[in-house]
Amino acid sequence: MGTFTRSPVSRKSNESMRLIVTTFVGVVFGFLVGLSFPTLSLTKFNLSSGILTTIDIKYTEYTKPSLSSPIPLQHPLDNNSSANATSKKIWVPSNPRGAERLPPGIVRAESDLYLRRLWGKPDEDLTSTPKYLVMFTVGYNQRKNIDAAVKKFSGNFTILLFHYDGRTTEWDEFEWSKEAIHVSVRRQTKWWYAKRFLHPDIVAPYDYIFIWDEDLGVEHFDAEKYIKLVRKHGLEISQPGLEPNKGLTWQMTKRRGDREVHKETEEKPGWCNHPHVPPCAAFVEIMAPVFSRDAWRCVWHMIQNDLVHGWGLDFALRKCVEPAHEKIGVVDAQWIVHQSVPTLGNQGESENGKAPWQGVRERCKKEWKMFQTRFSRAEKAYFKALNTTSH
């Protein structure tokens, strides 16, 4: 009778089965042990790199680990713990409106029109910082006149052209145009542009802002000498004197040949109810005004969004400086010629058989009346409310 022996193959199969069972039991036991610990906190650790700055990565506490749960990462700016972040909120009422949640050190409420590079170090971008701004609202047909005008302004001026005819690249025939700022929107006026692109916080770096028409003769004008006279006589709002025989509307803006500056005049009987009010004093026209930084901050807020021609502003400018009859004046020693080229009128449209310029002219007159009415009502409403609250 033969002896029964166990096969090697059978023994290997049993060992494999035992290993599988043991592994399964171990996995189940580990899972049960894991469930017995409700939370797990991992400490914060730092990763340093030669390329990146130190980044803090922190796993937040969690109750039920899951492979599908995202791992939250701490932003580099979040230096406080989650608890501190929720208890320490930033609110700075003195910050500009809308920026109250920002730390004051990061707020930049003002900007500028300085051109910057796309490369290099930011603090090396500017080789010069112009102190003054001159803007012209232009059409390409007046390019020769504008070329002559721009050459009267030194490198201390930022040159800004608003194009009402949509033609901008053609201006590169002038070398200065390549460094100028060009903004193009068809059929708009300089006051429309000024309201939308010359916010006081944008032009804050400039001591003086020139807002000029395109049809001005500047043969007898020098911008640097003009600025010196404006400073000397303490003018916050000014304009160059007008050549007496060209485009003259008001006596106040007529050039005097015997002085540097004048601040008052005599007009037709009944035109001025007081010698210190427009158009006898505290008055310049809107064709070539020059504003100090502080005066422009006030005037900009007075410009109405829908009244694009600016008619009536000249009589209200005195509201922005005090005393107006001393701080508004005409510079006689630096004078210009108003050529009265009706370029803007040609940008209108014919309606009801009227020429384009007629429609533009009618709107100018309507806007003047509307502005006067609005200002009068606003003043009355203010003083009425003031009297109500004082009782």
For the structure shown, list the relevant keywords.
alpha/beta; disordered N terminus; 9 helices; Spore Coat Polysaccharide Biosynthesis Protein SpsA, Chain A; nine-stranded mixed sheet; 11 strands; two-stranded antiparallel ribbon; 391 residues
In a nutshell, what does this entry contain?
This protein has 391 residues and is α/β, with parallel strands linked by helices. The chain has 9 helices and 11 strands.
Structure commentary:
By secondary structure, the chain is an alpha/beta fold. The protein contains nine helices and eleven strands. Helix content is 29%, strand content 14%. Strands 3, 4, 5, 6, 7, 8, 9, 10 and 11 form a nine-stranded mixed sheet that branches.
Q: With helices defined by DSSP (H or I, 4 residues minimum), what is the helix count?
A: 9
The CATH class designation of the domain at 124-343 is: Alpha Beta
CATH architecture of the domain at 124-343: Alpha-Beta Complex
CATH topology of the domain at 124-343: Spore Coat Polysaccharide Biosynthesis Protein SpsA, Chain A
Shape: extended
Class from helix and strand fractions:
alpha/beta
Strand content: 5-15%
